[in-house]
Amino acid sequence: MNPQPLLDGIPRRQSALTMALARAVHQLLDEPTLLHDRHAFDILGSNLARQTLVDPYVHNAPMLRTMRAAVVARTRLVEDRVVRAIGTGVRQVVILGAGLDTLFLRIPDNVRCVELDQAQTQQWKLDRLKESGISVPSNVVFLAADLAEAPLMELLGNHGIDPKLPTIFSCLGVLPYLETSVVSAIIRQVSLYSSQSEIVFDARISREFLSPVEQWMEEMAARSFAAAGEPWLSAFDPAQLMEMLLCNGFCDVECLDAEAINARYFMRRRDGLQAVDGGLRLFTATVG
């Protein structure tokens, strides 16, 4: 699997554009649509959006289809959790390593939303929004910071996120690119937020816990992203990662593999879209 064809002036995180392309192509090729995102093409920029609309099938090779299923499922999982949390009164959403995600455009204006990512990615995203005539809502803040170095509670507190109030954190497509110690630090920092705060994230699973097919898929993906300058830096025993969450005060910890994702989101589809285990797992956890 190679990262998608990209344009000049791309964000430093090419993976962010690869994921955005997956979400956009889903709007065109998959039926029924699991994730409805009317801004999926706006965030690509006009040239790439036009190319994708003209011929989305260049992004439909078998491995790209299974990757697309995983991308839209994890995004849908976050959106489901955010909608549920807001329904219970949560008014703070934090998107760590936001990339080119457009969730912030679907957050009600009475909910504080803070996006955090590296400066170049944030600026590239803001430029694409401006190009598309989309204004950042007044309840949304874009922060430029490095997750490996950012003191989350202080940084978010300075921009309206109160740690004493329940907060939902999204951290998709981020932790594999961070050292294990940084992943542990992020989990500890989120655990300090109010009871009923939640986090949704994906993480790589150590190779010894993967089947031979998964090991092959993981190796192919790892080579592709490393060649693009984004090497994967962390991997976990899923049981130990769940234990880490529990030891840091989280409860209702859930780990979803491809079988669980397919059972939840891709049953009885006429297009046969399915996720395939490729070394990643989705986790959800609630601060107790």
UniProtKB/TrEMBL annotation:
Its EC number is 2.1.1.-. SUPFAM superfamilies: S-adenosyl-L-methionine-dependent methyltransferases. It is an enzyme of class 2 (transferase). One of its GO terms (molecular function) is methyltransferase activity. Keywords: Methyltransferase, S-adenosyl-L-methionine, Transferase. GO terms for biological process: methylation. Exhibits S-adenosyl-L-methionine-dependent methyltransferase activity. Belongs to the UPF0677 family. This is S-adenosyl-L-methionine-dependent methyltransferase. It comes from Pseudomonas pudica.
